[in-house]
Please model this.
Amino acid sequence: MGSLPDLSILKGEKRNLEKRKLHALFEERLQTVSNNNDIAIIYKENNNSTLTYGQLNETSNKVARSILKQVVGDHALANNDGDYIVAVSMLPSDKLIVTLLAIWKCGAAYLPLDPTFPEQRIKHILKESKPVLVIHDDTVDANYFNANQAISYNKLMDESDNQSESNVPEIESLTQTTENLAIVLYTSGSTGIPKGVRLPHDIILNRLQWQFNEFPYSKTEKICIFKTALTFVDSVCEIWGPLLNGLTLLVIPKHITRDPQKLVDELSTYKIERLVLVPSLLRSLLMYLSLNNNTSALRNLKLWVSSGEPLAVSLAKEFFQYFSAKDGHVLCNFYGSTEVMGDVTYYSIKGDESLEGFEKVPIGYPVDNTIIYLLDQDLRPVSNDESGELWVSGCNLAAGYVNGRDPDRFIANPLAESSAYSRIYRTGDFAKIYKGTLFYEGRTDSQIKIRGHRVDLSEVEKSVLAIDGIDKGVVLCYKAGEMDQALLAFVTSEPTSKMTGLKVESLLQDKLATYMIPQVIILDNIPLLVNGKVDRQSLLKMYENTNNNDDSSIILDIDYTNIPKSKMTAAEVLFHTVGSVIGRSTRNTLSVKSNYYELGGNSLNSIYTITQLKKQGYLIGITDFIMAKNLGEVLNKMCSDDNQSQINMEAANYVSETLNNEHKKDGLSMIVSSFYEKADLEHWLKPEIKECDYNDLLNDTWKILVDKGLSFIVRDQNSKPIAIALNVDVRDEADITIEAENALVIIFEFLEHVEGSVREQHLPQEKGKIVHSFMMATHQELTAQENIAVIQFMEEELVQIAKKKGYIGIFTTNTSPLTQQLGSDILGYETLLDYQVNQFVSSTGRTPFAKAPDSQRALVCLKKFS
Model:
């Protein structure tokens, strides 16, 4: 007699879940802690704006009351689902977080509208969800939201001036449905129309509490980042996880996440310990780290969470070639969708051994208070050795879709063992259980993931076929989830139409989000199988054969016009490298006027392109490559031995002004942004060091600096202050008293340690001989090129000032690799002492820079005038 097969059902741990609204938990935490002056939010794009927890709570209370005033005054009604929704069209900032919290406090749910969404998509979302209000940035035209009631954030703030800062009593807030809706997120719909997922407070809390138990914040974890688009479900845990635990939330704008160099710098500067990212971004970061051979970067970042797309075994193994599991680095593979709060199963990879014998990275085990079922067509569990359709039940389930769309996705659970599991959600994925672990087996429909965003091919196809002049068409994905993944639309045009692929793509920009626009290929006819269905494999094979990157015979359309002979060899390398990397999606002729990204490049293959150029002997910085307007600028960078001519041209646009009291505000801002945010020593003292430490220091010394007449600021051609140089006589330095609690005490003790003996042994004893250049700061908005130009200008200006006053040299200590290189290679400084930073021991016995790599040096330098 045979044994019964094990059925494919996995149960997450059952934990008590006290159902609470998230903003109520936020408010209760503030009432139980003694100090609400802890920093809640850092937003560097707005003059290094910060908000304390007390300020965040009080400001959001006032804004909440203003929202209520708007909604009640307009007699706005709940939508068809009984929900009060407030739509938000704002870029990531501290203002955005205030707005989201305020929406919850007034009893509504927030619905993100990406400012870059096409107008047609916005219209559909607003018409279906019926928000009672739209809050937007000043940069967004209110007419964009049609007949909906809209107000800018700044106007809302103006109207909140007279509102109370106290918490909004629940009795005064809007009355939601029994689901206590918190968020509505629109995803790609299986019918070709975007649909809104309704996420209550309870399911978000279940997901967060599981995270707090399974991946708790460490004792050293002080700052977390918010970088994910608000329209993407991963943003929910990025924002509210840290804020419900009293940590600081660093808002990362989109332009930083697109630039691996800048992103790595931010993660390193703030010692970020956890990061959620899609596999394509993980691959991009690993390529960048490998390209720069920086073995010390991101060593604080212990928890890496990959989600949104399938994680390849090869990529996971590549991760552990760079980050050692022995040092505590963990790579996790999360699985889920918006309908199940983003993540419903997880697998922790703690080294290569976790993947032994696996052809795929598992998606693992269910989170708390959820059950995973693998079912057949009759909703019966399959046995453990079979693939089945993945269904989810439990506390991570959304409340359904806006307007009750697609009721067949959320149904009564025929296998429910208690009321907590009375509903079940159909994911549309296949999976299999092997040795008690869940493995993803693919989709049952036409949905794919592009950069973490769920895209339904039928939605893209519907938009393509709606274009005048298109006869027939089919949308496919080539190599889904891989580096050279491509979204393709194969179409035929009407006989009288002169439609081109590029023209179709241009028309789609008004209908689809950027990541959903396919490469359009015009055909004479679309091949069919004998049963009359589209021969999809034939189309993909045709595309591969026509655009095969691995085929050395690939024909590239290259225009070498206006390229001088001296740069022709480099141009050939550049064009053929670009063509080989993005050949499958190259849209146009390769020339000096071509923009890399308009050709079909993206942030991932741009890193690969730079890597390939480096192998062929051409070095170009990642930021320079990414920011280049066209391949002509890239070519010029490749062929430039140095930036001297450009620096001199830029310097002609600058003027200096002797320091005075009117410069104080701008000067302090630049010093804080340059030193607190980016300085190489301060990096190791965070979060002990504070921005206010610089204000305290310079407030006491500003008058002395002004009186000495050696310091100055720099203005650009528009009279905007862009740099400041603080200088004193090395034998007439002011006595600076720094309070013990000011962490800059450590910096000044270190500088005295490395400079003291050099000053006594190598410098003249009398006044009026040597200028001490002790602080140079530049504006945070300067590009790397502009930054170098301004530094050189300040050096030349200081030399002129010093010579006029009879000085014979400049003394300084450089801790930045950039200023060290400039000092020795261009500016003519002699190094008197080369000191290894991590060797410093303070007077209290501390080694404050112990975690600094051996390569980090402090160079004490002198430049004598001829």
